[in-house]
Amino acid sequence: MTGPEQDHWLSRPETVRRIWLTFGVLLALTVLAEVVIDIEGYFGIDGWFGFGAAFGFGTCVIMVFGAKLLGLVLKRPDDYYHD
Predict the structure, then answer these.
(1) CB–CB of 35/61 below 8 Å?
(2) How far is the C-alpha of 39 from the C-alpha of 32, rounded, in Å?
(3) For every one of its 83 residues, what pLDDT tens digit does the chain have, with 9 covering 90 and above?
(4) What does R_g of the chain's alpha carbons equal in angstroms?
């Protein structure tokens, strides 16, 4: 039996929206905390405002595209083991 009363709480659209909003606010507050906390970088550029967030996002994007590229290289045909 399926229905709205049987849905898991994490699969409900309003819960997913609330989680995205909560994490977005927490990430924004983390970046804004750099206004109060003085960050001294080792290389100059890592002392810029919001560098950690931008570097983390950029690294994540590079890893996703790298995984897609690696998947293209390592992919085998569907009937690879049936030959």
Answers:
(1) no
(2) 12
(3) 455 566 888 888 999 999 999 999 999 999 999 999 988 889 989 999 999 999 999 999 999 999 999 999 998 888 888 75
(4) 21
d(CA 55, CA 58): 5
Q: Is residue 29 within 8 Å of 23, Cβ to Cβ?
A: no
pTM given for the model: 0.68
Q: Are 47 and 40 in contact (CB under 8 A)?
A: yes
Task: List the one residue out of 25, 70, 30 whose CA is nearest residue 54.
Answer: 30
DSSP 50: T
